[in-house]
């Protein structure tokens, strides 16, 4: 399924369906393919919006979690979006958290899956030698419980990014910014209903990270999915969509008087 990429000012994005906005933020090596099944499902219920995050286009000074959170704020402004359900995977979750802490007024709910912000195993201590395809393939496979989820197309995409010197520097800058930007002290300020969906076999942001988020974010609920790694919406999309749909429906049910 190919989607039309729309443009407004400097923003490029996909927008499908109608209803309350569900804004999806991808991770460090994220691409549209990460959200394909999710878009197809939720465009029947929501206005699904995927902004293209300028991970590799920002100047090096602003190549940070904070820089991306500012970009998201300007994007939501430009599209005049309100009552937003903001979802992020991996680095995208971290950006969603920082944005929500700074601009809570327009966020109706927060959805995090494999999010950084507390702890993550990045590319490891050794950054790959450029041109080492096998290394990149193995690292990409580690994202998933089932290594076959790392298609050749996906590995090629990650390889082309890491094989470009300037892009590789920006990826490292973002990864370091994510590690430095620990939100442990601030998470109790998040008042929005928050859904945490985690793979039980996530090695990048392991299950203990999800439990910590659940403990620190007051109005949060946590769901684990078995045989699933760092990107549940890609690896087990049907299960992920069912959990998210139930969460969003519950938010819109009138409160029952006890």
Can you tell me about this structure?
The protein has a single domain (about 5-250), classed as Alpha/Beta hydrolase fold, catalytic domain (Rossmann fold). The protein is built from 9 helices and 8 strands. The protein has helices at about 35-40, 65-80, 90-100, 135-140, 150-160, 165-180, 205-215, 230-235, 235-250; strands at about 5-10, 10-15, 20-25, 45-50, 85-90, 105-115, 195-200, 220-225. It is globular and about 55 Å long.
Q: Would you spell out the secondary-structure blueprint of this structure?
A:
Blueprint: E1 6-8, E2 11-16, E3 21-25, H1 36-42, E4 47-51, H2 65-78, E5 84-89, H3 91-102, E6 107-113, H4 133-141, H5 152-162, H6 165-180, E7 194-199, H7 207-216, E8 220-225, H8 232-235, H9 237-251
Parallel strand pairs: 3-4, 3-5, 5-6, 6-7, 7-8
Antiparallel strand pairs: 1-2, 2-4
């Amino acid at each position: 399924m190919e989607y039309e990429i729309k443009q407004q000012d400097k923003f490029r994005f996909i927008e499908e369906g109608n209803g309350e906005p569900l804004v999806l933020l991808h991770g460090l090596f994220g691409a549209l393919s990460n959200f394909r099944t999710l878009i197809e499902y939720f465009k029947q219920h929501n206005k699904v919006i995927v902004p293209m995050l300028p991970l590799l286009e920002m100047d090096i000074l602003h190549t940070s979690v904070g820089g991306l959170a500012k970009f998201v704020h300007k994007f939501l402004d430009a599209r005049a979006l309100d009552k937003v359900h903001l979802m992020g995977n991996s680095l995208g979750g971290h950006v969603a958290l920082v944005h929500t802490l700074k601009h809570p007024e327009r966020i109706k709910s927060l959805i995090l899956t494999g999010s950084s912000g507390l702890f993550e195993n990045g590319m490891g201590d050794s950054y790959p030698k450029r041109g080492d395809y096998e290394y990149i393939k193995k690292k990409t496979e580690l994202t998933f419980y089932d290594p076959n989820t790392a298609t050749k197309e996906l590995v090629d995409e990650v390889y082309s990014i890491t094989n470009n010197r300037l892009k590789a520097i920006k990826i490292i800058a973002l990864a370091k910014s994510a590690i430095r930007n620990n939100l442990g002290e601030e998470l109790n300020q998040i008042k929005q209903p928050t859904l945490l969906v985690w793979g039980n076999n996530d090695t990048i942001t392991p299950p203990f990270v999800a439990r910590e988020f659940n403990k620190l974010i007051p109005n949060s609920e946590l769901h684990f999915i078995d045989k699933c790694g760092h990107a549940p919406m890609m690896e087990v999309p049907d299960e992920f969509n069912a959990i998210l749909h139930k969460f969003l429906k519950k938010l819109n049910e009138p409160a029952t008087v006890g």
